[in-house]
Amino acid sequence: TSTWHNITIVATETRNHSQVSRVPVAIKVLDVNDNAPEFASEHEAFLCENGKPGQVIQIVSAVDKDDPKNGHYFLYSLLPEMVNNPNFTIKKNEDNTLSILAKHSGFSRQKQEVYLLPIVISDSGTPPMSSTGTLTIRVCGCSSDGTVQSCNAEAYVLPIGLSMGALIAILACIILLLVIVVLFVTLRRHKNEPLIIKDDEDVRENIIRYDDEGGGEEDTEAFDIATLQNPDGINGFLPRKDIKP
Questions:
Q1: Mean pLDDT of the chain
Q2: Taking the CA atoms of the chain, what radius of gyration do you get in angstroms?
Q3: Collapsing DSSP states into helix, strand and coil, what is residue 174?
Q4: Share of the chain above pLDDT 90, in %
Q5: What average pLDDT does the segment 61-69 reach?
Q6: Which of 28, 97, 137, 239 could bond 115 through an S-S bridge, CB–CB 3.0 to 4.6 Å?
Q7: Which domain holds residue 104?
Q8: Which of these, 45, 228, 32, lies nearest to 134 by C-alpha position?
């Protein structure tokens, strides 16, 4: 919080208060190595799919809250299980920073979109302090001059300027249109029975017509016409007969 503290010591004789002397005292707070170095900021590196082996992906730096006499000197290394990393390697720079390099080319967003690279940072204090920071490396599509254009895996298969939400909306509209067409065709093919009898099925066509000339009054004497009438009608009672339409 404060490296120096200034105080003043006053000495006075007991019997003669006019005999006074003052002396300033400067107290310096000595530093001990009690803080581990860490990344200066949260870095997110971008790797081009068309990159070349040995290309520098990102340069990272570290900070330390301690104040060593000869300045900071950091040591960078990969975790033991990441030393033989087949994709990336590190290189210490003269200005106390670190460069991240790609080991090969042919990175693909479809195969793996994000890589995580843990890096160990150590200082030169006594005793030395260290911490582990993780660098996020995102595979992106770049132009021929190395300009990042898109870092999403979905953008690789979709047309330019078309997001996944827009594609889903378009597919939903197409499916809805197909359903409407199928329903329309089905209704056209489905024929309901008509409520009225067709002309070709008219029961009147079943009446047999005879062209023979009748016998006149003699026909009425051949049989009693009253037998053809409704017997209930004689008494004036006609039952109701419901006929379905």
A1: 80
A2: 51
A3: helix
A4: 31
A5: 84
A6: 137
A7: 38-150
A8: 45
- Sequence-ordered list of residues with C-beta below 8 angstroms from that of 55, at least 6 positions apart, any chain: 101, 102
Count of alpha carbons within 13 angstroms of residue 129, beta-carbon side: 15
Terminal Cα distance for the chain, rounded: 102
- pLDDT tens-digit map of 154-179: 544 445 455 667 788 899 999 999 99
pLDDT at site 59: 92
Do the bridges between strand 62-63 and strand 75-78 make them parallel or antiparallel, or are there none, so unpaired?
unpaired
Closest CA to 108 of 52, 156, 146: 156
Q: 3-state class of 109 per DSSP?
A: coil
Can you give the CATH number for the domain in which 70 is found? Answer: 2.60.40.60
The answer to whether residue 187 sits within a structural domain is: no
137-153 pLDDT, tens digit per residue, is 999 888 877 777 777 65
Tell me how far CA of residue 26 lies from CA of 9, 10, 12, 32, 185, in angstroms: 11, 14, 21, 19, 98
Model pLDDT for residues 181-202, shown as the tens digit of each residue: 998 888 887 755 555 555 555 5
Instruction: Classify residue 136: in a domain, yes or no.
Output: yes
Q: What are phi and psi of 169, to 5 degrees?
A: -65, -40
**Alpha carbons 123 and 115: distance in angstroms, whole number:** 26
- Examine residue 56 and state whether it is found in any structural domain, yes or no: yes
CB 92 within 8 A of CB 76: yes
